């Protein structure tokens, strides 16, 4: 059983290490060395899943807690990745690629209800809280709480209904990283061209 788990971990690390090898901050690591293979996997994972929190990164890469902490710390010290605290989470990003608002936006897009709200409002800017709650299958108070969080992050204006303050930015982030969110984000991204109008 242990050998099977170890082999699954190696396959996972190799998959993300391949992405890491093509990343802009390629290291000189050799895939033959477990330490370097782990770092290459993190190098691949972070740019393809920006804003992922520590536990998600650790679990997706099948790393131990101490192992993940060690390699993330080394990559941060080397200036290859950076992290930001988001409520109870520490989220990881490729260094120098995102501004503070992008980081906040990605943090909320990594949460199911706020992401669902953003997708609903990108699809229908006039959607009401009740309509969004019905569409997401959650309570109205859950939507109100998520709206408060998005407003505090400067991503939503609640003065007159719900209005995204940065729709183009959010649309870009959803489409670019849809595969790292969920099936709803992928379906949205596949249909996103129909939401963009050009009126010269």
UniProtKB/TrEMBL annotation:
Residues 119-159 form the HTH marR-type domain. Residues 36-106 form the HVO-0163 N-terminal HTH domain. GO terms for biological process: regulation of DNA-templated transcription. InterPro entries: HTH_HVO_0163_N, HTH_MarR-typ, WH-like_DNA-bd_sf, WH_DNA-bd_sf. Pfam families: HTH_HVO_0163_N, MarR_2. This is Winged helix-turn-helix transcriptional regulator.
